[in-house]
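Question (not urgent): is this output format expected?
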Amino acid sequence: MARSRPQRHRIPFGRHSTHFAGIQNSLALVLYEIRAIPALSSMILWVSCRLNRSGTIDSPVFVGWVEDIQAIRIRVQKGHLFAPIDIRFGDTHPSKLYRDCLNAAPGQLVPRKWTSKPESPGSQEIGKNFYDETHRRSVPVKIKGCSVGTLNAAFQGNPAAEDTNIEKILFHWAQKRSGLVDYIEQNLDYSPKR
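Got this back:
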């Protein structure tokens, strides 16, 4: 008798589910690894993950967001008492950055520098407004060569001097046999964009 594959769960999934915990645990490790880069010249603020909604190609869903302790202090001092994951979890706001990341050439990091002009209509600009974020680094999450979402790291200050190390960490977690990629592939009904 043939063994059936375990059922994969649709994206979005519940905020208080094992899938949320699985994603958050990986993001916490990514944040830890970036923060441990020797002489990091900018402050790592947070790491997030967006995945394509099940059955779609370009409908991003926030599935995880982990803040550094210093970022929490900045956010609270600026009067934002709720963590972004409480505000954005399950949010499906599309963005140019998300599309650019899904369409990035293999091995290409997608940098972002905040400007005074909003990125896209309806954007909450949480990174800029909550933390004074100035720069972001994003890479596509890839499974079997297909983009299924994004992994993002935000900074206060330009991290360009450490981009080689940041890239290595982000690409490992987003495109290699990492805990994040394995979890998504084994448990979630991800929708790839070729």
